[in-house]
Design goal:
325 residues; alpha/beta; Rossmann fold; five-stranded parallel beta sheet; binds thiamine diphosphate; binds magnesium ion
Length: 325
Amino acid sequence: MPQDTGPATEPGTEPATEPGTPADAPKSVPVGTASGTGLGKREWLRLEAKADQLRRLTLDTTYWAGAGHIGGGMSVLDILTVIYHKHLNYKLDDPVWPDRDRVILSKGHAGIAYAPLLCDLGWNDPALLKTFNLTNSPMGMHLDAAKVVGVDASTGSLGHGLPIAAGTALAARVQGKDWWVYCVTGDGELNEGSCWEAFMAIAHYQLDHVITIVDRNKFMIDGATEEVMALGALADKLRAFGLNVIEAPGHSLPDLSAAIDAAKSHAGQPTAIIADTVKGAGIDFMEGDYVWHYGALDEAMHKRAQASLERYYGARRARAEAEGV
Ligand SMILES: Cc1ncc(C[n+]2csc(CCOP(=O)(O)OP(=O)(O)O)c2C)c(N)n1
Ligand SMILES: [Mg+2]
């Protein structure tokens, strides 16, 4: 949450259309995973509205751009929503406030989901989304920290975010600062050896203010992670590298929020949260299909995707209404 001021956009942004029923929901709606402990009902609904708004904007941005990394954009959006709209310490009116928490989107190809969030905060002109990845736009497919306000590190070449996160946390230590560093990685990205070098450094230096969140959507660019380059017992591997590991359903906002709370209260050892997500979450014809790692939408597909997102939001909101306290 931002300092002093409230969230950038309050609830009430829900579409006027009546939501669908849970039975209509795409398969990515989590079932039986509610802890309900991470968020109160009102806040849960507020975050659901925000996540819905950002999913729609990500879909539209993909449509305007002609194509984009929509699969991994959709899988990471709940993670980004919970970070920015619940946990992150920042100032809306001063995006470069030196004491802010840092976010490093190591899976930089998800810029197509990150750009809408950074525009929605008011840090970049939302009109820029219509130029996303077009010639001369400041918003390229992978966001450039020198051109897009709010980006703490330019990423896109996989495997660099975790080393940057380690360095950022060490810098905080040297300066006596206590900012948190959130590093969001892909699961296929963990094929990069530099991630594991960084995990070793993060554990060795006990950088407990680095919270790694792995978007475990089980797919990479060209297939299932377990077929292309198996991660196997990922949680055990991360534990063996010295990290505290939390596994959480990655599309359940209360569970994600509770996982971040648990990471923050686990002092002395850095935490990695493995967020179990669905590639293409919310768009039924994309879910779990790696072909939609990067894809183009015509008008008919755009409309189908919008209808799917509406059902998805309806189901999620119904769950929050039923299970929230
Ligand atoms: C060093 C590097 N090699 C290759 C690529 C091309 N590339 C972009 S996304 C991607 C797959 C990443 O998979 P994953 O981390 O699982 O991403 P997600 O499923 O979250 O979209 C690849 C290989 C790249 N961006 N950087
Ligand atoms: Mg993946």
